[in-house]
Design brief:
29% of the residues lie in helices and 27% in strands. The mean pLDDT is 94. It contains nine helices and 15 strands. The protein is α/β, with parallel strands linked by helices. Helix 4 links the parallel strand 9 and strand 10. The strands form three sheets. Strands 3, 4, 5, 6, 7, 14 and 15 form a seven-stranded mixed sheet that branches. The chain has two domains: 142 residues, Quinone Oxidoreductase, Chain A, domain 1 (Alpha-Beta Complex), CATH 3.90.180.10; 136 residues, NAD(P)-binding Rossmann-like Domain (Rossmann fold, 3-Layer(aba) Sandwich).
Length: 318
């Protein structure tokens, strides 16, 4: 099979399209012929060797990728025979191996896909979608809210805009100039271009900020919160978290929450979040945006994602 291999940490050019032996499923595992593999922003940080999130950096060489969709084509010992030939999606956890034509997954991680759900959409929802569901549970948005979404055309942001509108809230979508029309199409009532000076002027007060960008955009969004408002943070793609101090909280009675990590796991496990996410997809309540690259273009995909030149979830197709 062909796979993306990384032999050293560094720039996108370290991702190499290579031929390697087919992986074999062990006990309790299956082999999936991959139709789509998800690319996460965290993958780019790991590639650079900067951090591995809550886990240590992987040993090299390795094949990145933790989200796949495809068809089960081989079973390991102890796996229910009915899985053979099923179209599935799975999150591979920290094991990786998703940027490949074939991937091994634990049978317990599989979700069977209905015919009307695409592989690309499934890959978006098995990882990014489950995070979105977890963040939304913590945010507790109501129809009375005015919700500001940073990176509103991103993998998470696009889902937040859709769900907030479905609930009946007013939505302010923040994105770059080229993506504003798309954010409007998603349902945002108001859009703002964070690349322009003074972008937050005149937007008025908001009650909820969903912030995965941090830095200056996150800080400007925080300053728009009215009395009793709340900010839910789940990342900092701008390079640093949104700056908050106790004066911000006391002056307007704000609430600041970090939605990822232990908080998301409290009262609900990842499997349940995946099921809720995939159900929302199957019911067409949430429809993810995707940007697709060929598997051999994984380096190009990383570069585009880091440069904010993509919309929605970035997906690799073998």
């Amino acid at each position: 099979m062909h796979a993306i291999r990384q032999h050293e940490f560094g720039p996108a050019e370290t991702l190499r399209y290579e031929e390697m032996p087919d992986p074999e499923p062990g006990p309790g595992q299956v082999r999936i012929t991959v139709s789509a593999a998800g690319v996460h922003l965290l993958d780019t940080s790991i590639r650079r060797g900067e951090h591995g999130g809550p886990f240590p950096l992987p040993e090299l060489p390795m094949t990145p990728g933790r989200e796949v969709a495809g068809v089960v084509t081989k079973l390991g010992d102890g796996v229910e025979p009915g899985w053979l030939g099923k179209r599935v999606t799975a999150h591979l956890g920290q094991a990786g191996g998703g940027y490949a034509e074939l991937a091994v997954a634990n049978a317990a991680s599989l979700h069977e896909l209905p015919d009307h759900v695409s592989d690309e959409a499934a890959v978006a929802m098995i990882g990014t979608g489950r995070t979105a569901i977890g963040v939304l549970r913590i945010a507790e948005i109501t129809a009375d809210d005015v919700v500001l979404v940073t990176a509103a055309a991103g993998g998470l942001g696009a889902l937040f805009v859709q769900e907030a509108k479905a609930i009946g809230a007013k939505v302010v979508g923040v994105a770059s100039t080229a993506k504003l029309d798309l954010v409007r199409e998603l349902g945002a009532d108001v859009v703002a271009d964070y690349t322009r000076p003074g972008w937050s002027d005149g937007l008025g007060e908001v009650t909820v900020v969903l912030d995965g960008v941090g830095g200056e955009p996150g800080r400007k969004a925080l300053e728009l919160l009215g009395i009793g408002g709340r900010i839910i943070m789940f990342g900092w793609s701008a390079g640093e978290p949104t700056r908050i101090d106790t004066t911000d909280l006391y002056s307007r009675g704000l609430t600041a929450s970090v939605a990822v990590g232990p908080r998301m796991m409290k009262g609900m496990n990842l499997r349940t979040l995946e099921e809720l996410s995939l159900r929302a997809l199957a019911d067409q309540r949430l429809i993810p945006l995707t940007t697709t690259f060929r598997l051999s273009e994984a380096g190009k995909a990383h570069t585009a994602l880091e440069g904010r030149a993509t919309v929605g979830k970035v997906v690799l197709k073998p």
